[in-house]
Amino acid sequence: MVETRLYIARHGKTMFNTIGRAQGWSDTPLTAQGEEGIRELGLGLREAAIPFKAAFSSDSGRTIQTMDIILAESHNQSLPYQRDKRIREWCFGSLDGGYDGELFNGVLPRTKAFENGRSLQEVSWQEIADSLVEVDTAGWAEPWEVLSQRIYDGFEAIAKSIEKSGGGNAIVVSHGMTIGTFLWLIDNSYQKQFIDNGSVSVVTYKDGKFSIDSIAALSYREAGRKIIQDEKKA
C-alpha cells in the first residue's frame, strides 16, 4: 500500500499574531509580511516538486488566504481543495481576541493546573484546555474530550480520504495550537514547541496509525526565500 503523507503548514503571520493577541475562532487577515512568508513557502514547495493529490485547510479566513497563496506559488491551483472546520484553532471562549500575555501569563496561571508555580511548558495540553473551560465566562471553550476528538478526527478524515484514493501527499493548512495538539495525540512524548508561521510538520498515515516525520520545519520557506533573493539579484 502506498503511504499517505500530510504536509501540515501553519498559516501565515496575521494582524493578531503581530500584535500578540489570541485569535482562536476569531480571525484577522495575513499582514504583508505574512503574505511574503507564505509566498516563500509556496515557492519552496514548488522547488521540492512534491506531488500533492489534494489540499485542505480549516474554514478560518487566515488559513484560506494562506492556502490560496501556497497553491498559486507552487503551481497547484488545479488541486481539489476542501475546508474542514474540525482543524480550526482552539476556541478561547470569552478570552478570544485578548492579549497573549494576559491570557497565558495572567489568567491561566491562576487556575488549578498551574498551582505550585508550574510553567506553561510543564502543563499538558489537556490541562490547558481544562483551565480555559475554568475561566471562560461565555461557556464557549471546548472541553478536552471535545477539542482533542474533533482535531484528531479532522486530520484522520483527511488522511483516510487520500488513502482511499490510493495514497500520496496532501497539503494542509491549520493553526499553531491545533497542530501542536495533533502531534501530541500522535505521540505523547512530543514536547510542546513553537509552531512558527509558515512552518511545515509532516506526518505519515499507514495501517490506521499516524507517525511523525518532522515538526515545524522552516526549510521550505528558507528555500523559497533564496529563490526570491536570487530573482532580485538577476
From TrEMBL:
TM regions (residue ranges): none
UniProt cross-references to Pfam families, sorted A to Z: His_Phos_1 (PF00300)
Gene3D superfamilies (alphabetical): Phosphoglycerate mutase-like
Keywords: Isomerase
Domain of life, source organism: Bacteria
Enzyme Commission (EC) number: 5.4.2.12
Molecular function via GO: phosphoglycerate mutase activity
SMART domains (UniProt xref): PGAM
InterPro entries on file: His_Pase_superF_clade-1 (IPR013078), His_PPase_superfam (IPR029033), PGM_Phosphatase (IPR050275)
Keyword Isomerase tagged: yes
PANTHER family per record: BROAD-SPECIFICITY PHOSPHATASE YOR283W-RELATED, PHOSPHOGLYCERATE MUTASE 2 PARALOG
Name under which the protein is recorded: Phosphoglycerate mutase
Lineage, top ranks: Bacteria, Bacillati, Bacillota, Bacilli, Lactobacillales
